[in-house]
């Protein structure tokens, strides 16, 4: 069976999400609502409609053609009532200015693997492959497993980037086809984790441990958010935890605001106040702390 799932992007020639040159496949749907999320359009499993105010010409073709009466004209833009909208995408088709966009589309496993195979030669030369990201790939576990299996059948190195919040039975569906796990560690304190992501972290830490025990290569990824987890004490906790599990690699991902305009396009408020940046000195300090626990650190900006 050629399974179909929902993705919101395929990005070729990535060099920050696993070894070598990689193709990233972004699956839609995420169980978390991280305050700093730079892909808010990834949260729902279904497609979404984005409205780009800057491109709007004010013609109101969208308003007049919406069969559900879900779009209205307001000063400075158009507002979509997401309760009424049934995602027919008629407004997107009618908007010649390109101010309305669809985020998310259905693709079959075959279509995705065909796209991934286009760069087969680059993977071989660079030690790269495919990385399933999101959203959270485990929100569509059978679809993710089928993509990974077909990639492995074609001799391609496979990785997932996961937030860790999924049923272990769903991870098990992927394990036979998976070479590398990029595992997000956002906050070691469970109460704080719930406050900033919407869920506690016990299941996440348990899944991390199980993946290591299952013999998977794991790299932890730490989004560094000022005032939330970008401080010495938290990095020490991460270091101790990783050392106990013999995790040897970490990626540091300093906070950026690249996703802010997407919040406006979805008609939702950006949840964080103005935050400063993590300084180079702090990044070096965090690197030294983790290296003290035997962890090799790579710093990525704007991943
Ligand atoms: S159809 Fe496009 S350009 Fe016209 S009002 Fe709607 S969003 Fe703006
Ligand atoms: S997707 Fe369809 S229902 Fe939703 S706002 Fe556009 S035209 Fe209306």
From TrEMBL:
<dbReference type="Pfam" id="PF00037">
    <property type="entry name" value="Fer4"/>
</dbReference>
<keyword id="KW-0949">S-adenosyl-L-methionine</keyword>
<dbReference type="GO" id="GO:0016491">
    <property type="term" value="F:oxidoreductase activity"/>
</dbReference>
<keyword id="KW-0004">4Fe-4S</keyword>
<dbReference type="InterPro" id="IPR040074">
    <property type="entry name" value="BssD/PflA/YjjW"/>
</dbReference>
<comment type="similarity">
    <text>Belongs to the organic radical-activating enzymes family.</text>
</comment>
<feature type="domain" description="4Fe-4S ferredoxin-type">
    <location>
        <begin position="47"/>
        <end position="76"/>
    </location>
</feature>
<dbReference type="GO" id="GO:0051539">
    <property type="term" value="F:4 iron, 4 sulfur cluster binding"/>
</dbReference>
<dbReference type="InterPro" id="IPR058240">
    <property type="entry name" value="rSAM_sf"/>
</dbReference>
<keyword id="KW-0408">Iron</keyword>
<feature type="domain" description="Radical SAM core">
    <location>
        <begin position="16"/>
        <end position="294"/>
    </location>
</feature>
<dbReference type="InterPro" id="IPR013785">
    <property type="entry name" value="Aldolase_TIM"/>
</dbReference>
<dbReference type="GO" id="GO:0046872">
    <property type="term" value="F:metal ion binding"/>
</dbReference>
<keyword id="KW-0411">Iron-sulfur</keyword>
<protein>
    <submittedName>
        <fullName>Glycyl-radical enzyme activating protein</fullName>
    </submittedName>
</protein>
<dbReference type="InterPro" id="IPR001989">
    <property type="entry name" value="Radical_activat_CS"/>
</dbReference>
<feature type="domain" description="4Fe-4S ferredoxin-type">
    <location>
        <begin position="79"/>
        <end position="105"/>
    </location>
</feature>
<keyword id="KW-0479">Metal-binding</keyword>
<dbReference type="InterPro" id="IPR017900">
    <property type="entry name" value="4Fe4S_Fe_S_CS"/>
</dbReference>
<dbReference type="InterPro" id="IPR017896">
    <property type="entry name" value="4Fe4S_Fe-S-bd"/>
</dbReference>
<dbReference type="InterPro" id="IPR007197">
    <property type="entry name" value="rSAM"/>
</dbReference>
<dbReference type="InterPro" id="IPR012839">
    <property type="entry name" value="Organic_radical_activase"/>
</dbReference>
<keyword id="KW-0560">Oxidoreductase</keyword>
<dbReference type="InterPro" id="IPR034457">
    <property type="entry name" value="Organic_radical-activating"/>
</dbReference>
<dbReference type="Pfam" id="PF04055">
    <property type="entry name" value="Radical_SAM"/>
</dbReference>
């Amino acid at each position: 069976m050629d399974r179909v799932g929902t993705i919101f992007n395929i990005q070729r020639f990535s060099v920050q999400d696993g070894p070598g040159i990689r193709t990233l496949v972004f699956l839609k749907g995420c169980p978390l609502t991280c305050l700093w999320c730079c892909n808010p359009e990834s949260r729902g499993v279904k497609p979404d409609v984005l409205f780009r105010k800057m491109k709007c010409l004010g013609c109101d073709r969208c308003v007049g053609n919406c069969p559900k009466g879900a779009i209205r004209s307001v000063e400075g833009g158009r507002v979509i009532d997401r309760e009424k909208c049934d995602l027919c995408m008629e407004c997107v088709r009618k908007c010649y200015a390109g101010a309305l966009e669809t985020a998310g589309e259905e693709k079959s496993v075959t279509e995705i693997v065909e796209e991934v195979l286009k760069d087969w030669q680059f993977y071989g030369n660079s030690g790269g492959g495919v990385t399933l990201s999101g959203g959270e790939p485990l929100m569509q576990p059978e679809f993710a497993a089928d993509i990974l299996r077909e990639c492995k059948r074609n001799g391609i190195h496979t990785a997932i980037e996961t937030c860790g919040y999924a049923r272990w039975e769903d991870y098990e569906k992927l394990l036979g086809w998976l070479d590398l796990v990029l595992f997000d560690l956002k906050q070691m304190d469970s109460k704080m984790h719930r406050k900033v992501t919407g869920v506690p972290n016990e299941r996440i830490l348990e899944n991390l441990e199980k993946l290591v025990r299952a013999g998977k290569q794991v790299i932890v990824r730490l989004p560094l958010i000022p005032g939330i987890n970008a401080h010495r004490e938290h990095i020490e906790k991460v270091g101790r935890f990783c050392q106990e599990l013999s995790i040897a690699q970490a990626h540091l991902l300093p906070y950026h605001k690249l996703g802010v305009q997407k919040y406006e396009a979805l008609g939702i408020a950006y949840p964080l106040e103005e935050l400063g940046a993590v300084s180079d000195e702090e990044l070096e300090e965090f690197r030294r702390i983790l290296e003290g626990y035997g962890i090799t650190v790579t710093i990525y900006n704007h991943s």
